[in-house]
Amino acid sequence: MTTPVLGVRRLNRATLARQLLLERSTMDPVAALEHLLGLQSQTAQSWYTALWSRLDRFDAAAFGAQLENRSVVRIAAMRGTVHALSARDAIELRPLVQPVIERGTVGSHGRRWAGLDVAAVTEAARRILEAAPLTWADLGARLRGGWPDFDADALAQVARCYLPLVQTPPRGVWGKSGLAKHTTLEAWLGESVASQPSLAAMALRYFAAFGPATVMDLQAWCGLTRLGEVIDALRPRLRVFRSDSGRELFDLPDAPLPPDDAPAPPRFLPDYDNVLLSFADRTRLGAYDLFGLSGSANGVLPGWVLVDGFLRATWRIERPGAARVADSGAPAVLTVTALDRLSRAERTAVEREGSALARFVAGDSAPHQVRLVQAG
Question: Which tens digits make up the pLDDT trace of 130-180?
Fold first, then answer.
């Protein structure tokens, strides 16, 4: 039987549907977080925009409280980056990506550990952090008391490498700030990480949230390698397609596949939205180089705007003369930079959605304005 072929637009609409970006969902925010397999949240506040763009009547303050009551945690996970995960998913997913975190950390810092008793440092760090959350600098200073011949940062990186560490509130809570302090996942939740987590279950959930997708896409999302055998074992449970370029795509049999002309309203995404970072081949959302579009020498990313489902603009919001958007004072200015020509109807829709975003970020009662400019 001939394998069905899915073009770029059909893949685009399927991905938007799975990602709750075709229509805002009434799903509970924690349930949505689990459906999405977490949200990259290395920037402490911007990731809330990901849920605002996906959920109807999203209450950021109420969701931020989930970090404080420990229903949601921020922890290094997929790709070794900080993710917001439900407590349940942190327990299940964090041990699966431990090889990713070890590979990245050992690659960056392993030479600094020559002659170090890494196991002893790991256990010392566990005891220290379970007594009280600390910053990396404070942890390193404490560890250096036992290993004075080693750099404090190198010692702290041992803990980052080998312990599942949560960033504790108030950092990451909507409208609040705080230093990045860490404790162990077990101490924070009172429960150990899963002893037998399932790669197969993780893969099936990935296809539910991001499919149809290739094995390479799955690996790009999580950072693990050699997952072909996992997918081969799952083949009897999967539907198989091919892309325009001939790549094999896997999906759940009953997952939605909207038509390629399904309406896709403008959606504003945060700097590190997973939908833009979870595919080896990103053409289903546009062929731009994200880091090339950062417009910043240090690679700080802007927010992104999907128009007709594709990446066609960037956005930044600022309040002149104020340190934070939420501060009182001058109007919040949301600048949208179009990467190609938008039609009049598209511009109107982008400006309308941008105005709603500015109200969300700056507060409903705060003054704001939207500027739409052309790149170049």
Answer: 999 999 999 999 999 999 999 999 999 999 999 999 999 999 999 999 999
| Residue partners of 241: CB distance under 8 A and separation at least 6 | 3, 4, 5, 6, 212, 248, 249, 250, 251
User: Which H or E run contains 113?
Assistant: none
What is the residue type of 246? G
The closest of 224, 232, 80 to 164, measured between CA atoms, is 80
**Pairing, β 303-307 against β 267-269:** antiparallel
As a whole number of angstroms, the distance between CA 39 and CA 270 comes to: 10
Confidence of residue 298 (pLDDT cuts 50, 70, 90): low
- The overall pTM is greater than 0.90: yes
3-state secondary structure 322-345: CCCCCCCCCCEEEEEEECCCCCHH
DSSP state at residue 147: -
Domain ranges of the chain: 287-374
Which amino acid does the sequence have at 244?
D
Which amino acid, residue 194? Answer: A
Half-sphere exposure of 146 (CA within 13 A, CB side): 16
- The pair phi, psi for residue 212, each rounded to 5°, is -70, 150
Per-residue confidence band for 293, with pLDDT thresholds at 50, 70 and 90: low
Q: For the residues 18-39, what does the mean pLDDT come to?
A: 98
